[in-house]
C-alpha cells in the first residue's frame, strides 16, 4: 500500500479526531490485535498533551490548551487590543516576563503597575493582556491567578501566570 | 412593536485592526527592542527605515521619560546588561556559523570530473584557517595559469574552484606554505605562498568525485 507514497502529495489533511471516533478506534484495536488496554494506553494515551493552535491561511490566530480558556496570539492582540481586559506591570518586571516568568503581585500593585478599579475587578481564571509601564503595546498575555482585589490586599506571590509573551516560541511562528 | 429593530439600527461594521509596525531586526515592536539582544542593530535599522519612530523612541526626552519608576542606577544597569547580552548573542551566532562551516576542522580538496578527460579542483574549508579566499584563488590562477574562482555552493559554504586537476599540487603548496621558514629555495621562494599559511596540513582531505552533468 505504501510502495508509492509521498507525504507531500498523498496526505489530504490532518484533523484532530473526535473522541467518539477515538473510542471506537480504540475498541477495534483492542478486539482485533493481541494487546491489552494498559499497553495501548502506553502507546496512545487518552489524556495526551493537547495544544490546539487555530490558524487561518497558516497564520496562527488563537490557541487552547486542553479544555482551558482560548487565548488570542499576541500578534492578534496587538491588532485588536480591546478583546481582553488589561493589567499593567512596572518597568522592572518587564525583563522577567520576557524571560518567561509569572508576574508577582508587587509588579502590578506598585506605582508603575496598573490594576483595574474595584468595580471592574478581574476574577481568578480571567485571560488578560499584560501591558508594560511606559509602553504602548501589550508585552504578553496571561491568566489571573488571584483576583485583582486580592492582589491589592495580599500583595504577595503570583498574580498573573504568563501564557505567551513577546519573543517566545509562538511569536516566532509566522506560518504553520 | 416590531419596528424597533429596523428603526435606528446602525450598520454593524467590523472594527479595523491596529496597523502594527515591527522592528526589521528583532521582529518586536520597536519600543521593546531595548529588552532584546540586538539593540544597537535595531536602533540603526530604525534610524534608517523610520526616522520618525527613531525620534519618538530614542530622542533625549523619550529616554528620560522612559526611566519611569526605576532609578537611574537600575536603568544604567539594565543598559549594561543589555549590551552584555547583545555581545554574548553575537558571539554565539558567530560560533554557530563557524561551526556550521567547519563541522570538522577540515580542508577538502576535491577532484571533480567534468568530462571524460577534464577535471576541476575544488577546495573547501580554507577560510576556517583564516585564508583570504580571494587572494588565494588569484594566487592559484597565477600559479597554474588557469582559471580559479571563489564560489558559494550549497548551504552558503565558500569554495575555490580551479580548472583542471591540480589537487596534488594544491596539497603540496599548502604543505610548503606551512613548512615553516626554511629559507626560499626552489622556484623563487615563497612568493605569494603566505596566503596559504595557517592551514594544518594533517587536516586536509583529498576526495575524488564523479560529477555527471545534467543526469539523474
What does this structure look like?
The complex is a heterodimer of chains A (176) and B (216). Chain A has helices spanning 7-10, 19-32, 37-43, 74-79, 91-97, 105-109, 148-154, 169-172; strands spanning 51-56, 59-65, 70-72, 86-89, 103-104, 127-132, 140-144, 158-165. With 176 residues, chain A is an alpha+beta fold. In chain A, the strands form 2 sheets. Chain A has a 5-stranded mixed β-sheet with strand order 4-6-7-8-5. In chain A, strands 1-2-3 form a 3-stranded antiparallel β-sheet. In chain A, strand 1 (51-56) and strand 2 (59-65) form a beta hairpin. The two termini of chain A are 29 Å apart. In chain A, 26% of the residues are buried. The mean pLDDT of chain A is 87. Chain B has 216 residues and is an alpha+beta fold. In chain B, strand 3 and strand 4 form a beta hairpin. Residues 181-188 of chain B have low confidence and may be disordered. Chain B has helices at residues 4-7, 39-49, 51-58, 60-66, 72-102, 133-144, 167-177, and strands at residues 107-113, 119-124, 148-152, 158-163, 204-210. Chain B is built from 7 helices and 5 strands. Chain B is elongated and about 85 Å long. At the A-B interface, helix 4 and helix 5 of A face loops of B.
Produce a short descriptive summary.
Chain A is of the alpha+beta class and 176 residues long.
| Largest contact between chains | A-B, 26 and 19 residues
Distance between the first and last residues' Cα of chain B = 79 Å
User: What structural class do helix, strand and pairing data of chain B support?
Assistant: alpha+beta
Return the string of H and E elements of chain B.
HHHHHEEHEEHE
Low-confidence stretches of chain B: 181-188
Judging by the overall fold, what is the CATH architecture of the largest domain in chain A? Roll
Strand order within the widest beta sheet of chain A: 4-6-7-8-5
Protein name (chain B): Density-regulated protein DRP1
